[in-house]
Amino acid sequence: MKIDRAVMLFKMMSNPIRLKILKHLSDGGELCVSSLEEAVGSSQSSTSQHLAHLRNSGVLSCEKKGKNVCYNIADQDILNLINEFEFED
């Protein structure tokens, strides 16, 4: 992995809400916004902003399923990195 790429990935994870989102997605695979909102303890607006940031950076992908938008980790480097950490709630 190139240094610039690593810096971008660490910046993505520097926010506690984004890190929680990534951890829950790495544990649960695909999750919808409402599930992530509840899991990270953030408002719908805040959660959606962080999801958009991660999606626009290419870290997440999303798929519309009826009225729900579901997300998963699209970046294998992020998935590998997140899985290296042991988190406590």
UniProtKB/TrEMBL annotation:
Keywords: DNA-binding, Transcription, Transcription regulation
Keyword Isomerase: no
CDD domains hit by this protein: HTH_ARSR
Magnesium found in the keyword field: no
A GO term for molecular function: DNA binding
The organism's place on the tree of life at top rank: Bacteria
Domain HTH arsR-type positions: 1-89
PANTHER family the record matches: ARSENICAL RESISTANCE OPERON REPRESSOR, TRANSCRIPTIONAL REGULATOR, ARSR FAMILY
Protein's recorded name: HTH arsR-type domain-containing protein
